[in-house]
Backbone:
């Protein structure tokens, strides 16, 4: 085997693998496709050069003689396109080299290359028939147009370097600047190497043109490294940017959730938390609607509270009322009740809406709440007495279980969640009929809780709005009364 054929054959194999690596990385990217074509063109040029050296006769040598230059000249077109692609094509085409727009230089180069290809294929003016030399084997011989062709090569190599130089100077993107610098170094080194091994050393009679194949390898490997590094750095930047965006969005989401939580907490001070939670979960819509449900309804007020307000300073009334309502509201929420509204010292609570634990469980929760309210009222009364308030604060509670219409009432612009109906009125009437410090319940409620909470029959009472007597029971809160009841 001719050893002078080895460098171009090795270059062919390396450049072919490099071209495949580039295209397989991302065939959709235009830069990858151009670099693939450039590496493939260089590979074919070196492969043809190797085959020329391996030719065993003149016919084979004549066949392979012009192919290296054919692929090499075609590669110049791809080089120009690739360099424009990585250097902001539209901006570079507007700039001038020696007073002439790059766009004009580009078309002039393509016209010259086309002419070279035609001369190369159809005449021997550029590349003459090969001759055999020992020990290198078959070699190119050159026609009268080869010297002008070499001169044209100098111009052809200056133009891409100028485009890259302007691309480096005009970009502020560090990744783009880096790939242009690497490509500039690749072309400058390739040009210098080609000038040295293709012109200078052969001029002094040194047979080194076979090692010219190292130049294309250097060029393509460095350009591929630049492209892949740019893509890796771009991906890394995107990754870092994505992480920053995720962190920023996460922080913004936390802040939004915090604001939402704070808003919910503030709104819950005006609207019952059970209703507020449903609204924020999207389970309630702001529309006028209602439904029939089995509820346990509760009313309470402070006996003769109007007399206390008439005889007291407004500041003292507000302070005691706020403390009282705050304590009672906490107890209502503890047992799962919903407060549609406060009216002065009166408390209205619903059990069974918007959520229910079951009709019996709702009734039991309501009675347990009422008993805890009475216990808490005893402690508040003692506390206020020690603060100098002599008024005998006592609350009355009325409870009834039955069907009611529950939902949003009011107008499209302002509404409240409440329950209305005859059974709601009955719970209110029981509260008005109740003795101070006691809890009155209807027969319907008693039937639900009688197995768990001791009650004493009060008898029937006449209440406003009802044309029949109402069977009433009193919840026993005193241990002595409970023992007697047993």
Residues:
């Amino acid at each position: 085997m001719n050893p002078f054929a080895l460098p171009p054959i090795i270059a062919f194999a390396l450049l072919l693998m490099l071209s495949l690596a580039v295209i397989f990385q991302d065939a959709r990217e235009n830069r990858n496709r151009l670099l693939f074509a450039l590496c493939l063109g260089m590979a074919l040029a070196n492969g043809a050069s190797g085959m020329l050296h391996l030719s065993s006769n003149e016919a084979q040598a004549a066949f392979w003689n012009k192919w290296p230059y054919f692929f090499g000249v075609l590669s110049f077109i791809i080089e120009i396109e690739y360099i424009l692609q990585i250097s902001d094509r539209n901006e570079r085409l507007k700039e001038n080299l020696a007073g002439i727009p790059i766009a004009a230089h580009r078309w002039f180069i393509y016209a010259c290359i086309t002419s070279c290809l035609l001369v190369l294929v159809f005449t021997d003016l550029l590349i003459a028939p090969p001759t055999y030399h020992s020990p290198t084997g078959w070699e190119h011989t050159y026609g009268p147009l080869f010297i002008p062709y070499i001169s044209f090569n100098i111009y052809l190599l200056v133009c891409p370097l100028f485009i890259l130089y302007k691309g480096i100077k005009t970009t502020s993107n560090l990744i783009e600047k880096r790939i242009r610098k690497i490509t500039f170094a690749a072309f400058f080194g390739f040009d210098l190497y080609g000038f040295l091994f293709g012109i200078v050393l052969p001029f002094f009679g040194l047979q080194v043109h076979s090692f010219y194949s190292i130049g294309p390898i250097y060029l393509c490997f460095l350009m591929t490294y630049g492209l892949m590094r740019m893509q890796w750095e771009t991906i890394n930047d995107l990754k870092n940017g994505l992480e920053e965006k995720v962190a920023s969005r996460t922080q913004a989401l936390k802040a939004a959730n915090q604001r939402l939580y704070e808003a919910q907490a503030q709104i819950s001070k005006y609207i019952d938390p059970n209703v507020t939670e449903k609204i924020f979960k999207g389970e309630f819509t702001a529309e006028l609607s209602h439904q029939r449900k089995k509820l346990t309804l509760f009313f309470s007020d402070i006996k003769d509270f109007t007399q206390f307000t008439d005889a007291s300073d407004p500041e003292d009334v507000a302070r005691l009322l706020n403390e009282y309502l705050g304590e009672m509201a906490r107890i209502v929420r503890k047992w799962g009740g919903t407060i549609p509204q406060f009216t002065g010292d009166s408390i209205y609570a619903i059990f069974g809406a918007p959520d229910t634990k079951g009709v019996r469980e709702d009734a039991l929760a309501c009675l347990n709440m009422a008993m805890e309210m009475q216990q808490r009222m005893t402690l508040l009364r003692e506390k206020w007495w020690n603060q100098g308030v002599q008024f005998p604060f006592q609350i009355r509670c009325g409870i009834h279980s039955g069907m009611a219409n529950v939902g949003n009432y009011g107008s499209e612009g302002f509404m409240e969640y409440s329950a209305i109906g005859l059974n709601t009125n009955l719970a209110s009437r029981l509260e008005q009929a109740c003795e101070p410090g006691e809890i009155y319940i209807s027969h319907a409620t008693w039937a639900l809780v009688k197995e768990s909470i001791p009650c004493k029959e009060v008898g029937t009472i006449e209440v406003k709005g009802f044309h029949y007597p109402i069977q009433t029971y009193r919840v026993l809160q005193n241990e002595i009364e409970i023992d007697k009841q047993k």
